[in-house]
Design brief:
The structure holds two protein chains of two kinds. Chain A is built from nine helices and 21 strands. Chain A is an alpha+beta fold. In chain A, the strands form five sheets. In chain A, strands 10-9-6-13-20-19 form a six-stranded mixed β-sheet, with helices on one face. Chain A has a five-stranded mixed β-barrel with strand order 5-14-15-17-21. In chain A, strands 1, 2, 3 and 4 form a four-stranded mixed β-sheet that branches. In chain A, a hairpin with a 5-residue loop joins β19 and β20. The N and C termini of chain A lie far apart (59 Å). The mean pLDDT of chain A is 94. Chain B starts with a helix and ends with a strand. In chain B, β16 and β17 form a beta hairpin. Chain B is built from nine helices and 22 strands. Chain B is of the alpha+beta class. The radius of gyration of chain B is 24 Å and the shape is globular. The model of chain B has no long low-confidence stretch (mean pLDDT 95). Classes of the chains: A alpha+beta, B alpha+beta. Chains A and B meet through α1, α2, β4, α6 and β14 of A and β1, β2, α2, β5 and β6 of B.
C-alpha cells in the first residue's frame, strides 16, 4: 500500500510540474452499502456443472439441432471505495447468465441462434431448477427452426417494429453514447441539440441509477466510482433533449451537477462516464396493433453487438426477426444489421407499446468493459436494414 | 517467492492432490500511462497487475482457474479450484500440455519508461495535429509504457519466460467545423520506442487526416453490387473474423463454417498470403511462446490463396488430427503486393473504400452486413466523396476468392502489418 501511495505521489508531482491546476471538482458525496449477495447456501462447482448437464441433456431431444453450446457466466462485482470528499461506499452486485447457442443445418446451410437467461443476482437467486429454463430453450429451438427457413431481408430503408430488446439497445447505442458528457465535450452532435426536439413526442429516455418504475434495475448503482450520489439522468423527455450524463470533470466544465455516471470496471481502470440502466419509457400501444399497422416492413426481435457514433449514427446486429406483410408476420429473416442516424430515426417513432422489458445481460465496451442494463417497450420506426 | 519457485510449489501441490499434468502461467505487468481528454494531458497513472492462471488435468478431465494475487494462500487456493473444476468436468483425451523442449528466456525492450519523452511526444502530437488539422478534435488519447513478465511452466518440465516492454499510443478523435461533425474514429500503434514523432507513424496519422475530410460526408442514395477496397485498419477486423472464428478450435472441431473442409484448397485470390509473425523483429509486441507452452514460430496460414493451416491450439490439434498452429495466433502479416493504392482505386468502376466496418460478425456461411464507417464512394477510378448512413453487405468466402489485388504499401501497427486489399462483389446500400 505504501509503495502504491508513493508512486501515486510521484505521478502527481511529475504532472504538477507540467500542467496548470483546474478549478475544484464538484462533490455530491454519498455513503451507501448495497449487497445483492444471496442468503441461500452456495452451490459447489460440481452442482453448477450438474445443473448445466441437465440442460444439455434436455437439448439432446432435438434431433434437428446439429450443434449446441451452453455457457454459465457468474460475475460478482464487489467494490469498496473511500474518497477524500467523504464518500464511503461498498457494493456487491452479482450477475448470473446462462447463454445457450443452437445451430441447425438445412440444405447445406448452417443457421445459428442464441438466447441469454438470467440477470442480477447470484446463481441461487436467479435459477432454481433446470426445468425452469426448459420453456426458454423450447422457444429458442422453435425460433431457430423458423430462422433456418428464413430469407435475407431486402437492404434499404424500411418500416420496423423493434421488440423491447432492440429498443433497449437503441436507447443505449443510438442516444445513450451521444449524450455521455465526455463525448458531448469531444464534439458529439448532441452538443447542438440541448432543449431541442430530437425525437417524436412519444419518446422519453432515461438513464436510471438503480430503480425504475418501482423496481430495482438490472445494474443498480447507488454511488458511482468517484463517490458521487447516483441519480437518474433524464436524457430525452417527450422528444426534447434535456440533459447529459456526467462525471465530476464534465459537470465542472458544463456547470451542471454531477449525475453519478462515473464507473470503472476494475481497480486498475479510471472511472469514465458510463451508462447504467438506459431505457425508453413505455407508451400506450399494443404490440399486436403495432404489427398490424405495418403494410410492408419487419419485426425485429433479438439484437447482438452494437456501436454508436458522434454523429448519432448507430448500428446494431439483429439475429432474429420476421417480415411483416399487410399487417401480419411472414417469413423469418436471416442475420442482418440495422442502422440510422438516431436524431433522425427517433423522429419517425410513431407507436410505443405499453409494456417494458429489461435486458440484464448486456455489456458496453467503451474503453473498458462494463455491465449495463438496457430496456424499453416495443417501438415502431423507420431505419436502414442490411441485406441483399 | 520468485515466479519459478511459486510455479514449482503450485505444480507440486497439484501433483500431490491427484493432478497427472499441470500448467502454470504467471504474469506480472506494470503500466505507466499518460492520458489526455479534450486537449489537456490530465492524468498520469501507474498500475501493477498480472495474474496466475492454472490448468490441471486429472483422469483426462481439465480444470482451469486464475487469480490476480500472489500470496501463497491465494495461489494454493487457485490450484485447489482448478482441481475441483477438473473433478466436475467431462473427460476428453485431447486435453494435454506441451512436451518438454529446450527451455528459454526472452527479453525485448527497455526495462523502464522514458517519462520525459512520453510527455514530450504527447505534447508534440497534440500541437502538431492542431496545427496541421485545425478542425480535428482529439477527444481522448493515451501513451502508455507497458512491461510484461511472463512465465510458463508445466509438469513436463517446460520453463519459458519473457520480459517484453513497449509503448502504446492511442487516440480517439473526430472532426468538427461549425455544426458539422464527422464520425468518431480512432488510431493506435504499439512501438518499440518513442524516437520518432507520432504523427510520422501512418498507423496513427492517416486516420486523423481522413477525419477532417469526413466533414463533407453524403448519403449514397443508391444500392449496387460493386468493388471494395479494404484499408489496413478495416482489414484487421476481417482477419480477426477469419482467424478467431472460421479457423478457430471451436469451428474446426465442430466442422462449422466455410473453411472447415478447405485445408490445402484455394480459398482466396492468389495475391493474398497471410502469416502469423509472432517473433519477427518488426513486431513491437512479440509473443515468444504460445498459451499452450510451445515456443512460437513465424508460420503461414494462407499462401498465395491456398489455406495451409487452421489456427488450432494443442487441444484443437489433438481433437481433429490436424497440425497445431505454431504461430499461436496474433501478430498477423499480409504479404505486400505489387500495385500502388492509387492504381487499385483506378481499377474500381463503382465501389467503396472501406475504412471501418461496424457490423455483425459473419454467420457460418460467411454472410456479413454492417455500416461502412469513415468510408468513401469510388466511381470510375476516382474517390468521389465520403459517405454516411451507408451499409455494406457480402459474403466473406466470396470476398476472399474475389480478391483482385494487394497493395505494395502496408501499415505496421506494431502487432500486425497489413496492406490495402481490392475485392469484388459487395452490396453497398445507402438510405
Amino acid at each position: 500500500m505504501k509503495d502504491i501511495v508513493a508512486k501515486a505521489n510521484e505521478n502527481a508531482f511529475f504532472l504538477a510540474g507540467k500542467i496548470r491546476k483546474k478549478g475544484s471538482l464538484p462533490t455530491d458525496p454519498s455513503s451507501t452499502n448495497n449487497d445483492f449477495s444471496t442468503s441461500k447456501k452456495r452451490l459447489t462447482r460440481k452442482e453448477l456443472i450438474e445443473f448445466m448437464k441437465e440442460l444439455d441433456g434436455y437439448l439432446q431431444k432435438y434431433r434437428d439441432v446439429s450443434g449446441r453450446t451452453l455457457r454459465l457466466s457468474c460475475l460478482d462485482i464487489e467494490k469498496s471505495v473511500i474518497t477524500s470528499d467523504d464518500s464511503v461506499f461498498s457494493s456487491m452486485v452479482p450477475r448470473t447468465n446462462i447463454i445457450c447457442s443452437l445451430s441447425t443445418e438445412k440444405n447445406g446451410e448452417k443457421t445459428n441462434l442464441n438466447c441469454v437467461l438470467g440477470g442480477c443476482g447470484h446463481f441461487e437467486d436467479v435459477f432454481t431448477e433446470p426445468s425452469d429454463c426448459f420453456s426458454d430453450l423450447d422457444k429458442l429451438h422453435a425460433d431457430l427452426m423458423k430462422k433456418a427457413e428464413g430469407v435475407i431481408p431486402r437492404a434499404g430503408y424500411h418500416q420496423l417494429i423493434l421488440h423491447s430488446d432492440l429498443a433497449g439497445i437503441l436507447a443505449h447505442e443510438a442516444i445513450g453514447h451521444t449524450t455521455e458528457a465526455d463525448l458531448v465535450l469531444a464534439g458529439s452532435v448532441a452538443a447542438n441539440f440541448l432543449n431541442k426536439q430530437v425525437a417524436s413526442p412519444l419518446v422519453t429516455l432515461v438513464d436510471f441509477a438503480h430503480t425504475a418504475l418501482g423496481k430495482t434495475c438490472p445494474v443498480p448503482v447507488y454511488t458511482d466510482d468517484e463517490g458521487t450520489c447516483a441519480r437518474d439522468a433524464v436524457l430525452i423527455e417527450k422528444g426534447i433533449l434535456k440533459g447529459y450524463m456526467h462525471n465530476k470533470e464534465s459537470a465542472l466544465i458544463m456547470n451542471c451537477p454531477p449525475t453519478g455516471n462515473a464507473r470503472a470496471w476494475g481497480f486498475d481502470d479510471e472511472p469514465l462516464v458510463r451508462m447504467r440502466n438506459t431505457a425508453i419509457l413505455p407508451g400506450t400501444s399494443k404490440l399486436e396493433d403495432m404489427i398490424a399497422s405495418v403494410e410492408d416492413g419487419y419485426y425485429l426481435q433479438k439484437p447482438a453487438n452494437g456501436e454508436a457514433d458522434s454523429t448519432s449514427e448507430f448500428m446494431f446486429a439483429v439475429t432474429m426477426g420476421y417480415e411483416i406483410k399487410k399487417g401480419k408476420l411472414g417469413r423469418a429473416i436471416k442475420d442482418t444489421t440495422i442502422s440510422g442516424v438516431a436524431f433522425d430515426m427517433l423522429k419517425t417513432v410513431s407507436m410505443v407499446s405499453d409494456d417494458m422489458d429489461w435486458n440484464g445481460s448486456g455489456y458496453c465496451g467503451k474503453g473498458q468493459l462494463m455491465t449495463v442494463g438496457m430496456g424499453g417497450p416495443a417501438v415502431k420506426c423507420m431505419a436502414n436494414l442490411g441485406g441483399r | 517467492m520468485n515466479k519459478e519457485d511459486m510455479a514449482a510449489r503450485m505444480m507440486d501441490r497439484m501433483k500431490k492432490r491427484g493432478a497427472e499434468k499441470s500448467q502454470v502461467w504467471i504474469s506480472s505487468t506494470e503500466t505507466r500511462q499518460l492520458s489526455m481528454e479534450n486537449g489537456n494531458i490530465n492524468q498520469l497513472y501507474s498500475v501493477e497487475g498480472g495474474d496466475v492462471n492454472v490448468r490441471a488435468i486429472t483422469g483426462q478431465k481439465l480444470g482451469v482457474a486464475s487469480i490476480n494475487k500472489w500470496d501463497e494462500s491465494s495461489v494454493f487456493s487457485v490450484c485447489d479450484r482448478a482441481l475441483e473444476a477438473a473433478d466436475a468436468s467431462l473427460a476428453d483425451a485431447a486435453y494435454d500440455i506441451a512436451p518438454c523442449s529446450e527451455n528459454k528466456s526472452f527479453k525485448r525492450g527497455a526495462s523502464s519508461p522514458d517519462m520525459d519523452k512520453m510527455y514530450f511526444r504527447f505534447q508534440e502530437i497534440l500541437s502538431e495535429a492542431s496545427r496541421k488539422y485545425p478542425d480535428l478534435k482529439i477527444e481522448k488519447g493515451k501513451i502508455a509504457y507497458n512491461i510484461n513478465n511472463l512465465l510458463h511452466a508445466n509438469s513436463n518440465g517446460v520453463r519459458l519466460d519473457s520480459e517484453v516492454s513497449n509503448y502504446l499510443a492511442q487516440f480517439t478523435f473526430l472532426a468538427r467545423k461549425n455544426q458539422k461533425v464527422s464520425s468518431f474514429n480512432y488510431s493506435y500503434a504499439m512501438l518499440d520506442n518513442l524516437d520518432a514523432p507520432l504523427l510520422q507513424n501512418d498507423a496513427i496519422s492517416l486516420k486523423m487526416e481522413q477525419a477532417v475530410k469526413q466533414l463533407e460526408a453524403r448519403r449514397l442514395g443508391d444500392k449496387f453490387t460493386g468493388d471494395v477496397i479494404i484499408t489496413p485498419f478495416c482489414l484487421m477486423s476481417f482477419i480477426d473474423f477469419l482467424t478467431s472464428i472460421f479457423l478457430s478450435d471451436q469451428f474446426i472441431i465442430a466442422k462449422r463454417g466455410f473453411l472447415a473442409d478447405k485445408l490445402d484448397n484455394s480459398i482466396a485470390g492468389s495475391s493474398f498470403s497471410l502469416r502469423a509473425m509472432p517473433v519477427d523483429p518488426i513486431m513491437a509486441d512479440p509473443k515468444f511462446f504460445t498459451a499452450d507452452g510451445f515456443k512460437s514460430e513465424n508460420s503461414v496460414l494462407i499462401d498465395k490463396g491456398v489455406l495451409k493451416s487452421f489456427n488450432l491450439s494443442l487441444y484443437g490439434a489433438n481433437k481433429t488430427g490436424f497440425d497445431r498452429f505454431a504461430g499461436g495466433g496474433g501478430n498477423y502479416m499480409v504479404d505486400a503486393g505489387e500495385i500502388a493504392l492509387a492504381d487499385q482505386i483506378k481499377n474500381v468502376k463503382k465501389g467503396i473504400l472501406l475504412t471501418r466496418y461496424s457490423g455483425s460478425r459473419p454467420n457460418d456461411q460467411g454472410d456479413f452486413s454492417g455500416v461502412a464507417k469513415n468510408s468513401y464512394y469510388i466511381e470510375n477510378g476516382e474517390i468521389k466523396y465520403p459517405v454516411m448512413e451507408t451499409m455494406v453487405s457480402g459474403n466473406l468466402a466470396d470476398l476472399l476468392l474475389n480478391i483482385q489485388s494487394v497493395s505494395k504499401k502496408r501499415i505496421n501497427f506494431g502487432f500486425g502489418v497489413l496492406p490495402w486489399i481490392h475485392a469484388k462483389g459487395v452490396t453497398v446500400s445507402g438510405k
